[in-house]
Specification:
Structural class: alpha/beta
InterPro entries: AB_hydrolase_fold (IPR029058)
Strand order of the largest sheet: 2-1-3-4-5-6
Protein name: Alpha/beta fold hydrolase
Largest sheet: 6 strands, parallel
Organism: Paenirhodobacter ferrireducens
Strand content: 15-25%
GO molecular function, one term: hydrolase activity
Shape: globular
Keywords: Hydrolase
Number of strands: 6
Distance between the termini: 14 Å
Number of domains: 1
Length: 226
């Protein structure tokens, strides 16, 4: 059976992001075998509180991915990690479906300091709506807040560039919402990945994208064409 990995976003987990919204079942019904696990520092199993231990999240992910993947579906941070792996080893993970990513790909996480302060109980004022939404998303995963803060504070956080994305060889679907305050495709990402298929929908914010059936349907249709 064709294996498809599911990589959640920052603060999430496989269970809270994908299983809860029926992705595993939908993939199996379409003839795929879902492969799911939590990014380092995420999920109820916990992890290190030392940011240095998260310096290469993409490398940690690569060590756990099967070698015979047909494709992978990522959301938010998961899309960044998949593109980082694609730049390192073009085509190694098959067809890629990337949700909740845009021109923010080319910059460090903008909400990082505010999220870290909130996670460590050091925020001086109520969080902005974008930060509050990410915190709510993180609570659903049962992750340790200190682990999540360490992930945001990790050193050597790689920033992808157009030159590195020029190595991309695999078919890609980029799926976003116009209501997403975190990620919009705009022009830079589209120019960097001219061969990718882009889909933009109305009505869903950033953290709600994995629960939108339009994203799920588009992902399954894209993978089924391979």
């Amino acid at each position: 059976m064709r294996k498809v990995a599911l990589i959640h976003g920052w603060g999430g987990s496989h269970a809270a992001t994908w299983q809860a919204d029926g992705w595993d079942d939908a993939l199996r019904a379409a003839g795929f075998e879902p492969v799911g696990f939590d990014i380092a520092g995420h999920g109820p199993q916990g992890g290190s509180h030392d940011p240095a231990d998260y310096a290469d999240l993409a490398g940690d992910l690569a060590a756990r991915l099967p070698e015979d993947l047909f494709g992978a579906i990522g959301f938010s941070l998961g899309t960044k990690l998949l593109l980082e792996l694609e730049a390192r080893r073009p085509g190694a993970n098959g067809r890629l479906v990337l949700g909740g990513i845009g021109d923010n790909l080319f910059a460090p996480e903008q909400a990082g300091p505010a999220l870290v302060a909130a996670l460590r109980g050091a925020a001086q004022e109520p969080p902005a709506p974008q930060v509050a939404a990410l915190l709510d998303y993180a609570r659903l995963s049962g992750s340790d807040p200190a682990c999540l803060a360490a992930v945001l504070e990790r050193p050597a956080n790689p920033v992808l560039t157009e030159a590195r994305l020029a190595q991309v060889r695999t078919p890609i679907l980029i799926f976003n919402s116009r209501a997403d305050a975190v990620a919009q495709p705009d022009t830079r990402l589209c120019a960097a990945l001219p061969g990718a298929t882009h889909r933009l929908i109305d009505g869903t914010g950033h953290v709600g994208l994995p629960s939108d059936l339009r994203f799920q349907d588009a992902a399954l249709a894209f993978l089924s064409r391979g």
